Amino acid sequence: MIQEKIKIKNKLGIHARPATLLAQEAGKFKSEIFIAKDGIEVNAKSIMGIMMIAAEQGAVLNLTINGEDEKEAVKALKNIFDKIFEEE
Amino acid sequence: MITLKGIPASPGIAIGPAYIVSSEGANFEKKKIPPTNVEWEVRRYQEALRLTYDDLTKTQSNAKELFGKNFAKLMAAHKLILQDPLLVQGVIDKIRKEQINAEYALFLVGQEVNTTFEKIKDEFFRERKFDIADVAKRLYDHLTNKQQNTFASIKEPSVVIAHNLFPSDTIHLKRKSVLGFATDIGGKTSHTALLAQNMQMPAVVGLSQATTQIKNGDLIIIDGQEGLLIINPTTELIALYTKRKNLIEKEEKSLKTISDLPNETLDGHKVNLYVNYDPRRDFKELDNFKSQGLGLLRTEFLYMDKPVPPTLEEQVAVYKKAALRFDTRPFTIRLADLGGDKIAQFSLAYHEEEANPFMGCRGIRLFLKYPALMKTQIQAIIKTASLVPAKVKIMAPMVSAAEEVIEVKKVFEQTLKEMQAQNICPQNKIDFGIMVEVPSMALTLDSVINKIDFASIGTNDLIQYLIAVDRGNQEVADLYDPYHPAVLRMINHIIQACHKKKVEVSVCGEMASDPELVPFLVGLGIDSLSISTRMFLRIKNTLRNLNFEDCSNLAQAAILMGSSDEIRKLNEKHS
Predict the structure, then answer these.
(1) DSSP one-letter code for B36
(2) Domain tally for chain B?
């Protein structure tokens, strides 16, 4: 199991497009991937889940990845976050 | 008491409590699923997911062209919502854990999601609940397979009130518990209305606001003659309508006495009276009166409501059963007129996403694109003709040019040869005919007249194409007018073209079932009328009280007139 803290750096936070990107990327892996914010934990493969935690700029997300491809998954997801943060 | 005025779609009077079919279709009834059926319920849900996914993919690709990238993106987002673990595993878990039906599990999950989303601070994300509701609605529609289950849950005899009913819905209205129906939209000759007439079910359509003004259980009177709907009528009115209802039923009984009398006018002019029929119905009712044959078998209904097209054997079974009721009389089988508002459930690429389906791939156009479908039906018709003594005829719908007629006839003759080689030989020669319902074919009928044995005028489509009016659109439904001089002139032209070569010509459209219009058709010299079962004896009664010479004068005067008002006035004076 891998745990990572990620701070939302971009102005708009996890908005519609980032949420889509994130869910799509998470969906590619076999591992269970959860994102937690303020005590609410959601399935990162669920776009509805990601929307529910609506992370704004400055928020800190706790990423928990558990499964056979967890190493690849954490790398890929960090990449996605970087991409999201670069955009704005 | 409130009275609403709509369009009369099917005559008769119905009195009973309202049963509202919500246009949302959201009738989330909780049902317990026995443990042994839970996995079946899960599979049913998975199938709905798959169908909804296909649905969205189709919409997505079309959306790009029609509405641009953003709308297509929205559909992509909807697909993502559809694949969301919350909707997939979430609902499946609920079905399994609580042993409930998929619809209710979906409803519960939807509610949970909605509650969570209400709390989201970000307005944009909060508003996504509408997208989720939209996806859930699509899913729900696939789960319920439209509204057939909704009707099945009607417990007492009721009057169905709906925003719109599709032909596939109409046929599910169980006669025993549905007294009549009313819809917000629709026109007099939409297929829904025609089906109501065939089912002898009073109906009023095009009421605009019926579903919003009526509550479940309100007492409703439907007057299918006048196109009226009365909500919570006074006791006097109920008494009046009950009396009228009884009177109509009595009249119907007395009509039966003319059943065996000849089909001719007072001055002895004979007109063949045939019957139109929907093969899904119980052919027994055809024994209620004696027609001179079957003028139109609407075989497209065998192709609807089914996941696959009917096989040769299935078709032969239906045709044979029906044809045996007609001993040696004519039995006209129309090749399936699919398309328009009659869409098959199985996937046909040419059907999908037509912007203008009535001018799109329907009738023979569709069959020529799916030669295997056409071939099977032609084989079934030939096979039937080899098994029954009736005079089987084959008729091609929606032909618009000589090439199509030639092509279909070629396939028919070739198939006949192949089957004869296998010793499957018709007991009588199979006549080949066409529907004349597209103005281009009507005007050039002389070009194919030597290739056909008979012609049948489909007045509903002919009028719709001639006047360029969508017969299902209540905004323009009043323009749909059989009294339009262009209609009578066109029919006159068709009859003349046929009579020049002694080809039998009939009318199988709605005009033939309208007592007010029959004098014109008889006067123009029509050979045969093909009538809905419900109107058969009434039209026979009308015919028997006409004078051919008067009708002839009436028709000749009418085709010289310039407006439908003049023709209507002339008709009133005449009758």
Answers:
(1) G
(2) 3
User: Could you say which residues of chain A have pLDDT below 70?
Assistant: 16, 87-88
Burial of B355 per CB tally in 10 Å (0-12, 13-18, 19+): exposed
Residue B549 placed within a domain: yes
Q: Between chains, do B85 and A49 touch, taking CB under 8 Å as contact? A: yes
B269 has a pLDDT exceeding 80: yes
Contacts 24+ apart (CB under 8 A), B532-535: B532/B194, B532/B197, B532/B198, B532/B275, B532/B276, B533/B198, B533/B200, B533/B275, B533/B276, B533/B277, B533/B285, B533/B286, B533/B288, B534/B197, B534/B198, B534/B200, B535/B197
- Contact flag A52-B117 (C-beta cutoff 8 Å): yes
B382 domain residue, yes or no:
yes
Q: Which domain holds residue B234?
A: 2-23+163-252
> In CATH, what number is assigned to the domain containing residue B86?
1.10.274.10
Summarised one tens digit per residue, pLDDT across range B2-41 is 899 998 888 899 999 998 886 554 556 788 999 999 999 9
Nearest to B219 by CA among B233, B209, B208, B206: B233
**For B420-467, how does the pLDDT look when each residue is reduced to its tens digit (9 = 90+)?**
999 999 999 999 999 999 999 999 999 999 999 999 999 999 999 999
pTM flag (> 0.95):
no
Query: Measured between CB atoms, does B116 come within 8 Å of chain A?
Result: yes
Give yes or no: residues B324 and B396 share one domain: yes
Answer yes or no: is pLDDT of B489 > 80.
yes
A2, A13, A15, A80: the catalytic one is A15
B231 min Cα distance to partner chain A (Å) = 44
Active site residue B351: no
All domains in chain A, ordered by first residue: 2-87 (3.30.1340.10)
**pLDDT tens profile B179-188:** 999 998 776 6
* DSSP class per residue in B406-428: HHHHHHHHHHHHHHHHTT---SS
Tell me the mean pLDDT in the region B191-203. Answer: 75
Q: Do A46 and B125 touch (CB under 8 A)?
A: no
Judged by a CB distance cut-off of 8 A, whether residue B409 touches chain A is no
Is residue B471 over pLDDT 80? no
Touching check for B125 and chain A: CB below 8 Å?
A: yes
- HEC profile for B489-535? HHHHHHHHHHHHCCCEEEECCHHHHCCCCHHHHHHCCCCEEEECCCC
pLDDT digits (tens, 9 = 90+) for B216-257: 889 999 999 889 999 999 999 999 999 999 988 888 777 878
CA distance to partner chain B, nearest, from residue A17 (Å): 9
Does residue B347 carry a pLDDT above 80? no
CA–CA separation, B39 and B45 (whole Å):
10
Tell if the CB–CB gap between A48 and B121 is shorter than 8 Å: no
Q: Is A15 a catalytic residue?
A: yes
